[in-house]
Design a protein that fits this description.
Layout: H1 5-12, H2 16-24, E1 32-33, E2 39-40, H3 43-57, H4 62-74, H5 79-115, H6 119-136
Antiparallel strand pairs: 1-2
Length: about 140
C-alpha cells in the first residue's frame, strides 16, 4: 500500500514540512514518486522513517543519518559499517543520559531542600554562601538587596 505525504504526517506526527526537509536533506532517497510526481510512501518506507526519527530525536546529526541511509540503500554488505555508526551514536546517547541523570539528581536535591521543614534556613545558608563568595572575590554582588 502507498501512502501520501499527508497520511505519513498523520501516522508519524511529523509535519509535512519536516518530511519535505528530510527529503531535501537526502534522508528519504528510498521514497518513490507516483506518476504525478508525488511521494508515495510504503510500509517499508515508514519503518525506515521511524529509524530516522529515532536517530534524530537522540541527537544524531543529519549528515550522519544521511550516511546511515546511504549504507542501508547500499545493501546487506554494509551491515558492519552500519553497526559501527550506530555503536558510536549509542555511546553518545549513553553519555547524554548520564549527563541528564546528573542534572536530574541536582534538581531532586533542590526540590528536597525546598520541601524540607527547615527550607528557609537552608536557602538562607545557600544565599549567604553565594553572597560571601562574591564579596570575597571583589565581584559585584547581585545577591544583596
Amino acid at each position: 500500500m502507498a501512502y501520501s505525504i499527508q497520511t505519513v504526517a498523520q501516522k508519524t506526527g511529523l509535519t509535512i514540512s519536516t518530511l519535505r526537509f528530510y527529503d531535501k536533506a537526502g534522508l528519504l532517497p528510498f521514497v518513490a514518486r507516483d506518476a504525478s510526481g508525488y511521494r508515495a510512501f510504503t510500509d517499508g518506507d515508514l519503518a525506515l522513517l521511524h529509524t530516522i526519527v529515532c536517530l534524530k530525536s537522540t541527537g544524531m546529526k543529519i549528515a550522519d543519518i544521511r550516511r546511515y541511509i546511504e549504507l542501508v540503500m547500499a545493501g546487506p554488505t554494509t551491515a558492519e559499517a552500519r553497526r559501527a555508526l550506530l555503536s558510536g551514536h549509542r555511546e553518545q546517547v549513553i553519555a547524554k543520559q548520564q549527563e541528564i541523570a546528573h542534572s536530574l539528581a541536582e534538581i531532586d536535591y533542590k526540590l528536597a531542600m525546598y520541601a524540607s521543614p527547615d527550607a528557609e534556613t537552608k536557602v538562607a545558608h545557600e544565599w549567604a554562601l553565594a553572597s560571601a563568595d562574591k564579596e570575597k572575590n571583589g565581584l559585584p554582588n547581585p545577591f544583596t538587596a
